[in-house]
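Anyone have tokens for Alpha/beta hydrolase fold family protein? Sequence:
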Amino acid sequence: MSVLEGTWRSEYITTNGVKLHYVTQGEGPLMLMLHGFPEFWYSWRYQIPEFAQDYQVVALDLRGYNESDKPRELSAYNMRELIQDIRGVITGLGYDNCILVGHDWGGAIAWNFSYTYPEMVEKLIVMNIPHPAKFADGLWTIDQLQKSWYVFLFQLPFLPELLLQADDYRAISSGFVDMAIDKSAFPTHDLEAYKDAAAKRGALTAMVNYYRNVFPDFFNPQDRPEWGLLTVPTLMIWGESDTALGKELTYGTEEYVQNFKVRYIPNCSHWVQQEKPELVNEYMREYLSENI
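Reply: yep, here.
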């Protein structure tokens, strides 16, 4: 389904001092979808129409991405600000809670938000992003450190932006195609959409600034909740052929989540909801129908 075939609407909401863009379709309870790097709302193009049958689906452009505001300050992209963005979106849309769905960076925000405001999350669905405590543990292993080399590169000033925009934003498109198992999941028009979003003024620095806040957020106790037992029912969907995050990061997650379920998808990369959309939608719908 192309973006032009959808019946979704493009809207804006102002919260936490920023104007955020989102795409929405459907009516009913709120399902809020948070994308990862280097994406935007478009990464949920296969999920929006599917779940708009039963929910008001809202696929957000995170701050710094695509049509959303792009504050210049590095501190504008720490986890505390990102959490407040999500709280403001939920309440600003007139809801008390939501089904929260996140992939990659969006999943990291979803984990942190669910710990901070568990009463505002009916169910949590995360894709190819480990529990924050498991990821922190993984950074002490040689294997995951090698896979996370780009996180350290992104700590440098200026150079990451130059590398990402070189040769008509080739690194953006190759990031999808090179990692994907099914290369056909990313036709040219989809790759061009991602490059166009990254090319918006200020977007690259904003996107990289998420990573430049990683280490302060991990190691400053004031910038993260305590990783106790999460009471929000949680489904994790994981493409097993993720070259950025090892499957072993999922092991032991049940020690941190009271009601936890994981569904592994073989022969599928980090871009799980785009590479295997039918299966992801099936697992989501199955989980949402369960009484927990």
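The two ends are 32 Å apart (CA to CA).
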